[in-house]
């Protein structure tokens, strides 16, 4: 098991983005990483200063189920003024990404605007992110859970969409991409039915750099290319 905060007031963003959040009591060095794993643990024991817990500055982009971090690293490069965060439940992958981020920070003075965290987003998403705080949410090639009895476990369903809508800013965007046609149809149905989202047209996405990235940045998207399979994406705006 791994710890989780009681609510966003307990999250110290300075340990994830030390270049952007200055902790006067303890400045985190580039050699330190905190990923909420056994190797790089985090404790959420007390309420954190408002300068550090997201009340003054927020995480902008969240990649839910970030895998090996391909999209996360590309978001950091393409949007250098935004703070991007990857969420992943598999501890070894989180350690791998965290160590890679640390190497870039130490050796090349890069990747200060990205971080990774181990958590179960289906259980603890709103314990990290405040209302109307996130600009973009990404769901890349999520588990399709093919059996009907497991549809409730799909990361995009009506209940979870309400949580995502709570965290997204008005005008913020939700991106979902898959190589499974049936799952894409599910995404379209559930998002279209939700009153707080509006599905965007291809014309509305022509200048969206993030939309282009979801097709070719992640390791999973490249795997789909190697198998010569199709990709299906939907983008919706928080209204």
Automatic annotation (TrEMBL):
EC id: 2.1.1.33
Keywords assigned: Methyltransferase, Nucleus, RNA-binding, S-adenosyl-L-methionine, Transferase, tRNA processing, tRNA-binding
Pathway membership, UniProt: tRNA modification; N(7)-methylguanine-tRNA biosynthesis
A GO term for molecular function: tRNA (guanine(46)-N7)-methyltransferase activity
Coiled coil: none
Keyword RNA-binding: yes
Active site location: 143
Positions contributing to S-adenosyl-L-methionine binding: 65, 88-89, 120-121, 218-220
GO CC annotations, alphabetized: nucleus; tRNA methyltransferase complex
Reaction(s) the record says it catalyses: guanosine(46) in tRNA + S-adenosyl-L-methionine = N(7)-methylguanosine(46) in tRNA + S-adenosyl-L-homocysteine
SUPFAM superfamilies: S-adenosyl-L-methionine-dependent methyltransferases
Keyword Nucleus: yes
Cell compartment(s), UniProt: Nucleus
Function summary: Catalyzes the formation of N(7)-methylguanine at position 46 (m7G46) in tRNA.
Annotated family: Belongs to the class I-like SAM-binding methyltransferase superfamily. TrmB family.
Protein name: tRNA (guanine-N(7)-)-methyltransferase
The organism of origin for this protein: Pseudocohnilembus persalinus (Ciliate)
Taxonomic lineage from the root: Eukaryota, Sar, Alveolata, Ciliophora, Intramacronucleata
């Amino acid at each position: 098991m791994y710890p989780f905060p009681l609510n966003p007031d307990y999250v110290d963003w300075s340990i994830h983005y030390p270049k952007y959040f200055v902790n006067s009591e303890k400045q985190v060095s580039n050699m330190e990483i905190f990923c909420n794993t056994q190797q790089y643990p985090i404790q959420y024991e007390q309420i954190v200063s408002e300068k550090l817990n997201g009340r003054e500055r927020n995480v902008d982009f969240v990649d839910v189920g970030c895998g090996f971090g391909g999209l996360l690293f590309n978001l950091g490069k393409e949007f250098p003024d935004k703070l991007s965060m990857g969420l992943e439940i598999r501890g070894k992958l989180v350690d791998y990404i965290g160590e890679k981020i640390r190497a870039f920070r130490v050796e090349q003075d890069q990747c200060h605007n990205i971080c990774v965290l181990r958590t179960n987003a289906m259980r603890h998403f709103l314990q990290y992110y405040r209302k109307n705080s996130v600009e973009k949410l990404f769901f890349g090639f999520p588990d399709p859970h093919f059996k009907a009895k497991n549809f409730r476990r799909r990361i995009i369903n009506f209940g979870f969409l309400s949580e995502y809508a709570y965290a997204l800013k008005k005008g913020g965007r939700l991106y979902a991409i898959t190589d499974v046609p049936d799952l894409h149809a599910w995404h379209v149905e559930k998002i279209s039915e939700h009153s707080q989202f509006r599905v965007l047209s291809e014309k509305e996405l022509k200048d969206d750099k993030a939309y282009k990235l979801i097709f070719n940045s992640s390791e999973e998207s490249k795997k789909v290319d190697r198998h010569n399979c199709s990709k299906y994406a939907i983008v919706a705006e928080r209204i």
